[in-house]
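[Help] Beginner question about ligand-bound structures

Sorry if this is basic. My supervisor gave me a protein sequence and a SMILES string for pyridoxal-5'-phosphate and asked me to "get the holo structure". I don't really know what that means in practice or what format the answer should be in. Inputs are pasted below exactly as I got them.
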Amino acid sequence: MSTTEYKPGLSIEDLPPELRQKAPLKLASNENPLGPSPLALQAIRDSLETLNIYPSKQLEWQLRQAIAASISDQLGPEHIVIGSGGIEVLEFVARSHLTTPHAASALPRQSFPFLARFSGRSGNPIHFFDLDEVDFSYHPERIAAAITPETRLVYVCNPNNPTGTYSTAEQVQQIMAIVPNDVLLIHDEAYVDFVDAPDFPDLLPEVLAGKNLFLMRTFAKIYGLAALRLGFGIAPPAVIERVAGVKRNFHINKLALVAGLAALNDAEHRERTVANNAAGKQWLTAQLTQLGCRVWPSQANFVLFAHETVPAQAMIDGLMAQAIIVRPAFGLDNHIRLSIGTPEQNARLIESLTAVLQQV
Ligand SMILES: Cc1ncc(COP(=O)(O)O)c(C=O)c1O
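Answer (accepted):
No worries, everyone starts somewhere. Holo just means with the ligand present. The predicted complex, written as structure tokens, is below.
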């Protein structure tokens, strides 16, 4: 495989031997550079001897209870559904709401593409809307134009992947005002733990008030458990019941359940992760700007950037030749979405990108 044949989504294990010898670095999937939560790892080790036993329903209930309690004392397990990764949670939402061939979704074009892929496979209609061409904000009137009488789902990703930009509480209220009550609004909060903007929305009161709203979160990023597959949704009990109705038994393995329970108590790892991310994001933004890149302000654990003159693919290929995996941003040709690493990883990225830009 030549470097130009590299397809986004590859992991280090997929690289050809000549690149694997170069201490590969992947900054492409918004993974936690500090590794998994140590408390989660200990819980996994402690459970290994009982892998011959099926996971108990009780354990799943406990995790739902613990997730609810970690967010608000007004939430209970009846407000939580868990899945094998946030992607499975989104799949449950889609399967439980797109129940006829005509049931449609209104989806942003420059955002996380899972629901688009799901609907593409199932044949359900998708009505796309574009984010703002300059600042990637969501326009309520464009969302409204994408909603038809057949629409069952509207998706908002906040902070938005791949742009890192966010919608304020006021903007989300405006969106909620135009989504009909019988249409489920999904507010994907996969990166919420990295947010420090004071005007970011807190939608728990809306959930508690019974609004047709579904908040999605994941253990993959903040707790560094991407490979274990664990995510959850927060919604009014009636929505949770409907979404959970499509699950099969034992869809989450026991190690994920015990790790999730332990991770929720790992405040230290969470705080180190947030601090590393904030410092790395600031440093990378300054360095990339100095290299002639435009960097968008991010509330997540990645940044979106583009060079003034050098095409994104040339940078991606040049970095790949040095065994650094970054990826183009979905829906945004000529932009790179770069995950924040450790200080050493960030420094290597900048050193390598400087060399790449000198060569093109
Ligand atoms: C916006 C968004 N939603 C959902 C997910 C899915 O998360 P998980 O890895 O838990 O399936 C991701 C993962 O990158 C994401 O970026």
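A couple of things worth pointing out: The CA atoms of residues 74 and 86 lie 23 Å apart. The chain has 13 helices and 13 strands. Feel free to follow up in the thread.
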